[in-house]
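From the shared-data thread, chain only:
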Amino acid sequence: MIRIVLAVLLWASAVQAAPLTATDAADIARIEAYLNGFRTMKSRFLQIASNGSTTEGTAWISRPGKLRFEYDPPSPLLLIVGYGVGFFIDTKLGQTNNFPVLSSPLSILLADKVQFSGNVEVDAINRLPGQIQITLHRAKAAEDGSITLVFATAPLSLRSWAVIDGQGQETRVSLFKTEFGGMFDNKIFTHTEQGGTAPSR
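Structure, as tokens:
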């Protein structure tokens, strides 16, 4: 099943985008309005890496541009995104890799105003019973990969996403126990040698 889903996502991101229909445009407008209806989000997540390994943790998102993925023990990993830079931190090895946020398709979800036009292009819209999927990439940066956002339709709610990076590696994230709104201390999105301030769960 995982292989089938992966094949569908890879195919959707590889083909040339078809012209949008009136139904597509209406769904895009509804999804944009939904995503722009909140600025902050906290959620538990299940992540499936390209090698099939799974990890759970807690995610914090604060738009524009800030994200924290704190993985449950025994994983030593931490992902912090803020102020235009992302950091992958291995707290056990004391190693940090950084990357410009705009090089990741995830930046589409972290934009100040989420908009699937202009600097963002729609590759595909797929509809399943009770679900809609939209695959996107940054305009003129298809080589950086794509993101597929998956929504439940009744009511509309973000359930998961899949990022395919520039090397073709896919990472899938499913959300549960999601809470919208609230205030987060900006320190949790700031990288320090200790991995930033640990938020209260």
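Confidence is low (pLDDT under 50) at residues 1-15.
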